[in-house]
Write a structure and sequence with these properties.
- This protein is mostly helical.
- It has a single domain, classed as Growth Hormone, Chain: A (Up-down Bundle), CATH 1.20.1250.
- Helix content is 73%, strand content 0%.
- It is globular and about 60 Å long.
- It starts with 9 loop residues before the first helix and ends in an 11-residue tail after the last helix.
Length: 243
């Protein structure tokens, strides 16, 4: 649909809306709240860290800033993707195809990341996603062939799939349930702020640097620095004796 009628945005958006409604109806039928039993811990019984302890821990900032940085990049590249690829000499058809290619790759990365999150340290998994992101960003100024444009789009989508899984997995595992809402809410706020800054950064690069390409090595370097930070942290469950 997108590639057949690229200027018709209403039909795809309507399809997305219908899909969301169908998913909501299916979820309503299949998902049920599970009542607590005597064998389950009561509220507050599970070891947890406080909101202040979370903010004081390197792991919080590694995951919050690492994911937020990906949000910045994703917001900028998705908004200006057609212009980015046009700067590399590609027509609109390549932009549309790259957009379509990224969807299944991102979903597959979500599934793979979820599986790996049960077997690998989350800090290492996040670092791997950020290294992949850095590779895509560093390679973009050299993209010349059509297949390279699709490989770049696939790498961005795969990195996003893995990083997203890490973001939504780490908070309960590292900090417990007691202050989970405040902790994840603070991290989510950071992602919103970074994502809002992404388009501004890309637009400023285009205006002041004459193109997007000069920005990408700096973004790649930042992603590598955040990957090193993520690799250095260890996610340990709360023990209850840290007050």
């Amino acid at each position: 649909m997108v590639t057949a009628r690229p200027d018709d945005w209403r039909t795809p958006w309507a399809g997305i809306g219908v899909g969301v409604l169908v998913a909501a109806a299916v979820s309503l039928l299949l998902v049920r709240d599970r009542e607590a039993t005597k064998d389950e811990p009561k509220d507050g019984a599970e070891p947890s860290r406080t909101f202040g302890q979370a903010l004081a821990s390197p792991a919080f900032w590694a995951f919050a800033v690492g994911t937020s940085f990906y949000g910045l990049v994703a917001a900028g590249t998705s908004l200006f993707n057609e212009s980015l690829l046009a700067e590399r000499g590609f027509p609109k058809a390549v932009f549309l195809n790259a957009t379509v290619v990224g969807i299944p790759v991102g979903l597959a990365a979500n599934l793979l990341g979820g599986w790996l999150a049960t077997r690998l340290p989350l800090g290492g998994l996040l670092a791997g996603g950020l290294v992949l992101l850095a590779g895509a960003l560093g390679a973009f100024p050299r993209v010349a062939a059509e297949w390279q444009a699709y490989a770049y789009a696939s790498a961005l989508a795969a990195a996003g799939g893995v990083i997203t899984v890490c973001f939504f997995t780490v908070w309960r595992r590292a900090y417990g349930p007691a202050a989970l809402g405040r902790i994840q809410g603070a991290a989510q706020l950071l992602t919103v702020l970074f994502s809002a800054a992404g388009p501004l950064l890309f637009a400023a690069a285009k205006t002041r640097l004459g193109g997007y390409a000069p920005l990408f090595p700096w973004l790649a370097g930042a992603a590598l620095a955040l990957a090193a930070f993520a690799w250095s942290v260890r996610v340990r469950p709360p023990t209850g004796d840290e007050r």
